[in-house]
C-alpha cells in the first residue's frame, strides 16, 4: 500500500472517501469509550458515520481471554454512508485475544496497530496462540505497526501519582491519541469530554490527558507511520447536529411524544439486554414528569403500562424478544380493552436466551401473531439509529388516535449503533391527537366507535358520570357489558381487525429508492436499511435495474405496497431471520418474493446483499455466506 | 395531572353524600346463590359512602376468578383484568394517578398462585392500594381444584388422593412482604367485615385484607368450625389494638406467651399477663405469632394484625418529579442537543 521510505520525516497525506476503524481489546480496556470518543471527534469534524459496538457476552470474562474481547467499529466518510462498514481498514488490537478474534475481518493490506507489550507468553496462551503472531509471519498480509503502548503509557505517566494498575487503565487514551493523529483529528473533543467526565478526579484526568497527548506525539515524532489519512467532511443538509445512538433516540422520541401530546410519560420495564439503556435514559427524566417503574418482571411491566394507559397517561413498556413473549398475555388485554399502549422490542438473537448482545430481526412474527385469539396490533420499525426518534412519536400518534397497542421493533444493531443526527424541530413531526369521552345522556358505552378510525370511546377514571367497567372478557358492542353473544363476538373481532387495518389510511406510502419499476426490488424492514440501500445503489451504479425500499410500517402495510411489488420482475427480501417478512408478503400479495436470510447475530454486509442481487440477476453462481472463524468478536 | 384528565379532587368538591345504592350497578350478580361473595359485595357497597370519595375517583381492579367479577357490580370505574395481574395494573394506575383511590379484588388462586410474585412486590413497594383477597381455599370458577391455601391432604377434583402440598398462610405472606396494613375478616360477620374494609381503605399505604369466604358449591363449610354464628365467639380471637387478647362469649379466655409460644388461658379474670395487642409494634414479632395461631389449636385471630406508617411509593416518585423540576427546569431543546453539537451551514 505504501512504499518503504525511511528517510521521510513528514508523512504523506492520503485522501480517502471512507475509512472503517475497529478498536478491540479486553472488556476492561475501555474500547467502547475509545470508539465513542473517536466517533464523536469524526462527527464534530463533519464526517458522516455509522458505528457497530460489539459487546462480549459475559460482563467480566477472564482478563485477556477470547470471550472477554470487546470491540467497537466506526466507519466515517466524506459521503453519505448508511452502514458501519463491511470490514475494517484499520484494526487496533490491545491484546492477543483481541487480535485473534478480529484479524479475520481486517481487509488485506489493512493497517494493524497492536500493543506489543501485551504479547507475553501468558497472554498468548490465553488467546490460544502457540506462536507469537507478531513474529511467526502470519500477519504478512497486513501493515503491522507494533507499538509498546503499555510501556510508553507508563513513561508518559511517570510523574502522575497513581498506582501502576490505575495507570494501565489510561492505555486506551494512548491508543486513541495515536489513531486521532493518524486521521489528522483534533484532540479537543476528547479533552473537553474528559474534563467534564473526570473533573472531580484530577489525577485520573491528568493521567488520561497525558496518555492522549503522548499517543498523539508518538504518531507525530516516530516514523512508524508513513501515511496519514484524510477524510473530508461530508456534504450534509445545514443544521445543528449531534451524535446519537438508537436507544438514546428511542428514549428522546418517546419523551417528544409526551411533549407533543402534553400527556405525562409512564415507562414500565424490567431490565433486559439490549433494551435497558432506554430505561436508564428515561429514568433520568423525572424533571420532564417522566415516571419510570422498574417492575418485578416483564409481565408486571406490561400490566403497569396498561394501568397507566387506563389512567390516561402516555403508557410505554420496553423489552427484548424473551420479554415480549412474557408480555403477550398482557398485550392481549390491551388489545381487548383497546387501550393505547406502546411496547418497545429491541430485538436480539433468539430463540430463548439466544445471544443477548447480538442483533437479529426475528420477532416480527411474534409481534404479529404471538398471542391467543385474533389479536391485531399495529407494528412500526425504525430503519436507522436516528430514525428511532421519529418512529417513537409515530408509535404514540397511532396508538392514541386509533386506540390500539403499537409494537415498536428496534434491534440491537440500531439500539447500540450511532450516527450524526440533525437535531429536528418538533414541528417536523405529525401532531398527536386524542380525545376523552364527554359525559352525555344515558349510560356510557366504552365501545362506541369513531366512524372513521373505529377508535373506541375513551373515558379515564376521574371523569364524573362516565364510570364504566372494561376487561379481558368479550364485551357487547352496544353497551360494554359482558357478552357471549355469537354475533357480537364475530362483529367485535372484525371491528378490532378493521380498526388496525384502517391505520393504513394514516401512514405514509412506501418510498422506492431508485426507479419505481424494473428487474429487481430489494425490500427490507427495520435496521437492514443501510446495507440494502447501499447494495442496491451500488448495483444501479453498475448499470443494473435494481431498486430498494424499506418498510417502517409492518402492520398494517403502507397502502401502495402491493402496487410497488407489482412493478418489479423480482422481489428480494433480506432479513436477519429465517424469513418472516417474506411470509407476510407472500401470503398477502401472492408474490413469489425470494428470501435472503442471515442469522449470525451480525448485520448484513453491503457486499453480501450485492452478491445476492447479482445471483438473482443471473450474474453469478448461488451466494453462500462466509463466516469468519473464529467468530468475528466476542464469545 | 389532575387537570389533564379533568379529575376533580376531594378538596375542590363539596364532599358527596352517597348511599349504598349509588354503588350498585345495573348488572345482574352472577355468583352462586349462597356464595360468601354476596356478603363482601354488600359490605363494600355499605362502606364506600363512608369514605366520602367521589365515585369517579374510585377504581376497582380485579384478576380472574369468582371474586374478580366484583368490579361489574360496583358503580365506579372498574377493570376486570387477567389472571393474577390486577396488582400490576393497579400499580401502574396508582403511580400515574396518585389522586385516585384504587382497590384490588383478588382470590387465593389469583393473588397467591398465578399472581403471587406481583402480590409480594406490590406490598413491598407500599403502593397505596386496598387489596381484598377472598380466600375460599379452592378454585371455584374452574369448578373445584385445590388452591395454594387448601389444607394438606384435601380431596378435590384435581387431587382425588388428597393434596400433597402445604398451604400458604396469606397473612404471613403479607407480613413477609412488609405490607403496612394487614387484616383478616370473614364473610359471615358483616359488621366486622364492613369495619375492616373501612379501616383498610382509610390506611395510607398498601392494605391487605384476607376475607375468609365460603364457597358453598366446591368447599362448603371450610370455615364453619370457627366462623359460624354459634361457635364464633369461642373460636375467633377479635383483635383490638391496645387491648389484651381475649375471646369467648364473655371474653373470659385470654392469651399469654410462654417464650415465643402463645398459650390459651381459660376463664381468666385479671388482664395481668395477657398479651396486649399492638398493631403498630416496632417489630413484626407479635403479628407473626398471631398469624401462626390457627384452628383447632387456637382461636383464629381476625381484625387488624398490623398497621404502620411507611413512605408511599407513588408519593416518593411524585416528590422526585417535583424536586427534579425545581432543580433543573425541563428544557426539551437542551435535552435534544445533548452534551455536544456542531453546526453545518
Ligand atoms: S363457585 Fe364458589 S366461590 Fe364461585 S360463585 Fe360459586 S359459591 Fe361463590
Describe the model.
The complex is a heterodimer of chains A (635) and B (345). Chain A is an alpha/beta fold. Chain A folds into 3 domains: 6-230, Pyruvate-ferredoxin oxidoreductase, PFOR, domain III (Pyruvate-ferredoxin Oxidoreductase, domain 3, 3-Layer(aba) Sandwich); 242-428, 3-Layer(aba) Sandwich (Rossmann fold); 512-632, Rossmann fold (3-Layer(aba) Sandwich), CATH 3.40.50.920. Helix content of chain A is 34%, strand content 19%. The radius of gyration of chain A is 27 Å and the shape is globular. The model of chain A is unreliable at 1-8 and 631-635 (pLDDT under 50). The two termini of chain B are 41 Å apart. Chain B has a domain at 3-222 and 311-326: Thiamin diphosphate (ThDP)-binding fold, Pyr/PP domains (Rossmann fold), CATH 3.40.50. The longest helix of chain B is centred in the first third of the chain and has 15 residues, at 37-51. Helix content of chain B is 30%, strand content 18%. Chain B is built from 11 helices and 12 strands. With 345 residues, chain B is an alpha/beta fold. In chain B, the strands form 2 sheets. Chain B has an 8-stranded mixed sheet, sandwiched between helices. In chain B, strands 8-9-10 form a 3-stranded antiparallel sheet. At the A-B interface, helix 1, helix 7, strand 9, helix 9 and helix 11 of A face strand 1, strand 2, helix 2, helix 4 and helix 10 of B. Strand 9 of chain A pairs antiparallel with strand 12 (341-344) of chain B, so a sheet runs across the interface. Bound molecules: iron/sulfur cluster (SF4). The site of iron/sulfur cluster (SF4) has 11 residues of chain B, from loops.
Amino acid at each position: 500500500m505504501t512504499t518503504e521510505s525511511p528517510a521521510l520525516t513528514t508523512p504523506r497525506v492520503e485522501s480517502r472517501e471512507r475509512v472503517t476503524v475497529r478498536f478491540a481489546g479486553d472488556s476492561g480496556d475501555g474500547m467502547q469509550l475509545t470508539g465513542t470518543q473517536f466517533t464523536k471527534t469524526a462527527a464534530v469534524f463533519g464526517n458522516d458515520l455509522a458505528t457497530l459496538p460489539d459487546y462480549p457476552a459475559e460482563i467480566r470474562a477472564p482478563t485477556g481471554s477470547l470471550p472477554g474481547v470487546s470491540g467497537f467499529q466506526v466507519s466515517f466518510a466524506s459521503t453519505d454512508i448508511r452502514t458501519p462498514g463491511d470490514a475494517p481498514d484499520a484494526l487496533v488490537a490491545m491484546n492477543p485475544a483481541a487480535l485473534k478474534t478480529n484479524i479475520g475481518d481486517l481487509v488485506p493490506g489493512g493497517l494493524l496497530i497492536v500493543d506489543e507489550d501485551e504479547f507475553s507468553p501468558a497472554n498468548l496462551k490465553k488467546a490460544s496462540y502457540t506462536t507469537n503472531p507478531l513474529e511467526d509471519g502470519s500477519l504478512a498480509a497486513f501493515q503491522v505497526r507494533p507499538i509498546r503502548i503499555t510501556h510508553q503509557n507508563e513513561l508518559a505517566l511517570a510523574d502522575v501519582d497513581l498506582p501502576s494498575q490505575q495507570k494501565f487503565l489510561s492505555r486506551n487514551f494512548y491508543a486513541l491519541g495515536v489513531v486521532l493523529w493518524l486521521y489528522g483529528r483534533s484532540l479537543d473533543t476528547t479533552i473537553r469530554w474528559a474534563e467534564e467526565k473526570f473533573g472531580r478526579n484530577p489525577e485520573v484526568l491528568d493521567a488520561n490527558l497525558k496518555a492522549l497527548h503522548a499517543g498523539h506525539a508518538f504518531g507525530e515524532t516516530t516514523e512508524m507511520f508513513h501515511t496519514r489519512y484524510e477524510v473530508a467532511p461530508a456534504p450534509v443538509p445545514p443544521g445543528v447536529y449531534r451524535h446519537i445512538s438508537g436507544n438514546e433516540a428511542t428514549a428522546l422520541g418517546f419523551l417528544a411524544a409526551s411533549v407533543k401530546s402534553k400527556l405525562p410519560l409512564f415507562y414500565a420495564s424490567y431490565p433486559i439486554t439490549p433494551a435497558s439503556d432506554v430505561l436508564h435514559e428515561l429514568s433520568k427524566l423525572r424533571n420532564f414528569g417522566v415516571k419510570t417503574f422498574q417492575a418485578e418482571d416483564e409481565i408486571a411491566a406490561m400490566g403497569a403500562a396498561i394501568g397507566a394507559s387506563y389512567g390516561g397517561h402516555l403508557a410505554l413498556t420496553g423489552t427484548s424478544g424473551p420479554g415480549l413473549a412474557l408480555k403477550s398475555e398482557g398485550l392481549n388485554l390491551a388489545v381487548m380493552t383497546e387501550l393505547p399502549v406502546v411496547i418497545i422490542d429491541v430485538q436480539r438473537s433468539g430463540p430463548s436466551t439466544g445471544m443477548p448482545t447480538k442483533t437479529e430481526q426475528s420477532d416480527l412474527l411474534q409481534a404479529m401473531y404471538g398471542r391467543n385469539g385474533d389479536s391485531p396490533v399495529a407494528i412500526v420499525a425504525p430503519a436507522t439509529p436516528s430514525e428511532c426518534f421519529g418512529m417513537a412519536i409515530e408509535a404514540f400518534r397511532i396508538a392514541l388516535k386509533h386506540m390500539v397497542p403499537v409494537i415498536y421493533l428496534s434491534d440491537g444493531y440500531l439500539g447500540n449503533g450511532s450516527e450524526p443526527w440533525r437535531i429536528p424541530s418538533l414541528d417536523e413531526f405529525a401532531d398527536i391527537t386524542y380525545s376523552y369521552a364527554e359525559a352525555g345522556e344515558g349510560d356510557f358505552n366504552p365501545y362506541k366507535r369513531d366512524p372513521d378510525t373505529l377508535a373506541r370511546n375513551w373515558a379515564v377514571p376521574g371523569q364524573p358520570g362516565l364510570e364504566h367497567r372494561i376487561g379481558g372478557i368479550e364485551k357487547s358492542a352496544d353497551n360494554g357489558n359482558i357478552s357471549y353473544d355469537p354475533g357480537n363476538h364475530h362483529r367485535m373481532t372484525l371491528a378490532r381487525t378493521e380498526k388496525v387495518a384502517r391505520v393504513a389510511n394514516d401512514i405514509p406510502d412506501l418510498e422506492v429508492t431508485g426507479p419505481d419499476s424494473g428487474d429487481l426490488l430489494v425490500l427490507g424492514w427495520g435496521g437492514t436499511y443501510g446495507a440494502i440501500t447501499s447494495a442496491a445503489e451500488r448495483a444501479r451504479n453498475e448499470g443494473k435495474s435494481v431498486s430498494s425500499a424499506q418498510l417502517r410500517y409492518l402492520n398494517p402495510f403502507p397502502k401502495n405496497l402491493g402496487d410497488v411489488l407489482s412493478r418489479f420482475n423480482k422481489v428480494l427480501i433480506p432479513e436477519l431471520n429465517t424469513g418472516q417478512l417474506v411470509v407476510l408478503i407472500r401470503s398477502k400479495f401472492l408474490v413469489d418474493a425470494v428470501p435472503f436470510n442471515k442469522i449470525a447475530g451480525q448485520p448484513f454486509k453491503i457486499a453480501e446483499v450485492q452478491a445476492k442481487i447479482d445471483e438473482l440477476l443471473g450474474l453469478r453462481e448461488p451466494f453462500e455466506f462466509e463466516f469468519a472463524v473464529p467468530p468475528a468478536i466476542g464469545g | 395531572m389532575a387537570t389533564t384528565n379533568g379529575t376533580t379532587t376531594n378538596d375542590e368538591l363539596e364532599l358527596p353524600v352517597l348511599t349504598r345504592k349509588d354503588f350498585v350497578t345495573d348488572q345482574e350478580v352472577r355468583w352462586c346463590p349462597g356464595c360468601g361473595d354476596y356478603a363482601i359485595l354488600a359490605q363494600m357497597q355499605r362502606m364506600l359512602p363512608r369514605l366520602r370519595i367521589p365515585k369517579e375517583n374510585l377504581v376497582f381492579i380485579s384478576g380472574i376468578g369468582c371474586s374478580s367479577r366484583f368490579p361489574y357490580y360496583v358503580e365506579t370505574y372498574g377493570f376486570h383484568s387477567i389472571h393474577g395481574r390486577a396488582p400490576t395494573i393497579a400499580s401502574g394506575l396508582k403511580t400515574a394517578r396518585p389522586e385516585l383511590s384504587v382497590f384490588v379484588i383478588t382470590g387465593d388462586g389469583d393473588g397467591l398462585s398465578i399472581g403471587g410474585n406481583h402480590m409480594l412486590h406490590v406490598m413491598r413497594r407500599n403502593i397505596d392500594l386496598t387489596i381484598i383477597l377472598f380466600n375460599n381455599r379452592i378454585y371455584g370458577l374452574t369448578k373445584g381444584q385445590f388452591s395454594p391455601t387448601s389444607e394438606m391432604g384435601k380431596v378435590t377434583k384435581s387431587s382425588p388422593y388428597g393434596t400433597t402440598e402445604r398451604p400458604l398462610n396469606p397473612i404471613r405472606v403479607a407480613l413477609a412482604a412488609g405490607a403496612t396494613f394487614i387484616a383478616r375478616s370473614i364473610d359471615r360477620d358483616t359488621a366486622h367485615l364492613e369495619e375492616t374494609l373501612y379501616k383498610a381503605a382509610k390506611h395510607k399505604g398498601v392494605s391487605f385484607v384476607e376475607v375468609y369466604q365460603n364457597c358453598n358449591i366446591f368447599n362448603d363449610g371450610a370455615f364453619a368450625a370457627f366462623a359460624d354464628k354459634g361457635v364464633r365467639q369461642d373460636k375467633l380471637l377479635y383483635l383490638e389494638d391496645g387491648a389484651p387478647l381475649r375471646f369467648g362469649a364473655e371474653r373470659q379466655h385470654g392469651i399469654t406467651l410462654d417464650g415465643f409460644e402463645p398459650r390459651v388461658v381459660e376463664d381468666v379474670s385479671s388482664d395481668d399477663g395477657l398479651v396486649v395487642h399492638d398493631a403498630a409494634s416496632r417489630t413484626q414479632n407479635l403479628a407473626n405469632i398471631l398469624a401462626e395461631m390457627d384452628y383447632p389449636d387456637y382461636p383464629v385471630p381476625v381484625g387488624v394484625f398490623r398497621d404502620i406508617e411507611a413512605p408511599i411509593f407513588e408519593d416518593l416518585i411524585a416528590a422526585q418529579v417535583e424536586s427534579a423540576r425545581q432543580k433543573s427546569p425541563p428544557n426539551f431543546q437542551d435535552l435534544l442537543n445533548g452534551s455536544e453539537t456542531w453546526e453545518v451551514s
